[in-house]
Design goal:
Oligomer: homodimer
Number of domains of chain A: 2
Order of helices and strands of chain A: EHHEHEHEEHEEEHHHEEHEEH
Strand content of chain A: 5-15%
Number of helices of chain A: 10
Structural class of chain A: alpha/beta
Shape of chain A: globular
Distance between the termini of chain A: 56 Å
């Protein structure tokens, strides 16, 4: 066959999904807690006979539930198969000018993969030495769009809301995407800014704070004109995306605010303890507003050594072999027990 | 905002999804029968607590089940969120040469939407006056790929296997996609030709013959090199697509061959009766190998009139306002009762 038929790409590499019965899985930022009991009930109540019918073509029930939850009109909400699907669709729909899209040099590595996939040129902006984002770098620069993860990944650091608003205001001609995958664990959302700025898209996911990674639900909120552009691209790819179980369980999750808040509080409390104990062991831990910490061990111990030792014990954390962060580990906040087991292993290495 | 940021597209328009309690829905080629009792059991057994974890990154369990079912290695199978997702990914992965992709002028209208989305030039080949595909039209012509739906939609007509093989053999340098969404209802599959031709991709769906439209599962079978190209593009968009419920229910469906065969037999028997009765009323009905019939009413009655009258009675069929087929209706094969109710209304118009 002719080779020019085929796309050649370097895809995103997700965290490995090991399968040991005794493993402690702190490598893909999943919640250590199950989804809301209302989700479990929705699953038990689910009528599988209805699977013969297509799901709602615009993922209507989740859209309505989220619109009500956040206080927007449904025309401001777009729902996809995880926030990766939502973000990929935004890249395809909103970054077509030929001018480069700007994002931090160290951030969610899928941004660059989508840019390459859709032939979007990229301008990567270095972080400050302390791994924070300098908002000024994104203002007054010719570009075709901006993408900021807040809190940023894998650094875990949140930006000031005022800095984010400055970036949005400084780029009135282009779309500014704020990826709030981890915002429920800390930092200040700009969701309330959507009515103020017609160029703002806020992206969220059910995979982290709603304990629904296995259901594949993500969404974004923006003004209806932007949502319409995104939806048109989506409807040019696949008319029906989120399936019937995802829709029913997603709606149930949105309806249980109390459980949602309780699980967030638990994760945040464990995160603070984890950061404190790692620091006591000599680690440098970046200030986390997420459901993970980003930490580097005290010399001469290296991140690779800690990673290997933990993996031997079937404790999986994430180690990115990327220059600048290759001596850091991204550790998902587990249950208190999981964190204690992990810390006990780390102590043996010190 | 600058308008050049945004993609402007004419998306695919799916059949309307009306929601009347008393409706008879014969407009989107869903099965009138529920999925296998094994799927219902899998749903009841589903452990929603596991939703906190990402699903299998390569949709492993369905892949394995399908590989075993069809007698291929798992490296020959790719699974997506419905066959639309699979086909969209194939268009993006395999049709990048700049040469036009060929498909019939009257076929699944999403093919042209994907081509436009991915900037693929298109060469549409007219059908014969009897709505059949002339295989010779696809042989010995410079192109960048071929897509054939077999049976074709919305005509319902299947091609001879020998003709399809001729097209595959005549285009050794390019990918030939055979979209077998409806093959279980008639026609002869070319799945067994996959080991013979390295340029063949056979696409299937769980939405029609497996009564799982609401679960969103589609797949394709091809040689491992082609699957790898498709998978690389998919992994550049979204690492986790089919969710946990879809994977468990999909596997359960594949494991119940007896129920699958029994439901196919029922649909086929009803289809034959439906076609016969429509012909008795003076309709011209194309020879169907699918779970729908494509039929035109006796003059002076028009398809639009029949459509409107049925819709008034909350009986929904599909009417494409496309030149050449705008006096035809695509009628999904329902239960015997649904078909009788529909026929009774049609009789009143004759």
């Amino acid at each position: 066959m002719r080779e020019d038929n085929f796309r050649k790409l370097d895809p995103y590499v997700p965290g490995i999904q090991p399968a040991f019965a005794d493993m402690i899985k702190l490598n893909t930022n999943e919640s250590p807690y199950p989804p809301s009991p209302k989700v479990i009930e929705a699953s038990e109540r689910f009528n599988a006979a209805d699977l013969r019918l297509y799901p709602s073509v615009d993922v209507g029930p989740i859209r309505d539930a989220l619109a009500e939850y956040h206080g927007f009109d449904r025309s401001c909400v777009f729902v996809g198969v995880g926030s990766d699907d939502v973000l990929a669709t935004i890249f395809q729909a909103c970054f077509n000018s030929g001018r480069p899209v700007m994002f931090p040099e160290i951030t969610y590595s899928f941004y660059e993969v989508w840019a390459r996939l859709y032939n979007i040129s990229v301008k990567k902006i270095p972080l400050r030495p302390d791994f924070t984002i300098n908002a000024d770098d994104y203002c007054g620069v010719e570009n075709g769009g901006v993408v900021i993860a807040n809190p940023n990944a894998p650094t875990s650091i949140a930006m000031e809301k005022g800095d984010i608003e400055m970036i949005i205001r400084s780029n009135p001609e282009n779309v500014v995407v704020i990826d709030e995958a981890y915002i429920d664990f800390g930092g200040e959302s700009v969701l309330d800014c959507v009515p103020k700025y017609d160029n703002l898209i806020v992206v969220r996911t059910f995979s982290k704070s709603r304990s629904l990674a296995g259901a594949r639900i993500g969404y974004c909120v923006a003004n209806p004109e932007l949502i319409n552009v995104i939806e048109t691209v989506r409807n040019s790819i696949n008319s029906y995306t989120n399936n019937r179980p995802a829709i029913e369980m997603g709606v149930a999750s949105v309806k249980d605010e109390e459980y949602f808040r309780a699980m967030l509080a638990k994760v945040i409390a464990t995160r603070e303890r984890l950061a404190k104990e790692l620091r006591a062991l000599g680690f440098t831990v970046l200030p986390s507003s997420a459901n993970f910490v980003f930490a580097t061990p005290p010399a001469p111990l290296t991140a690779a050594e800690v990673y290997d030792r933990l993996a031997e014990k079937h404790i999986f954390v994430r180690h990115f072999k990327i220059p600048g962060i290759d001596n850091y580990l991204r550790i998902t906040v587990g249950t208190d027990d999981q964190v204690d087991t992990m810390l006990a292993e780390v102590k043996k290495l010190i």
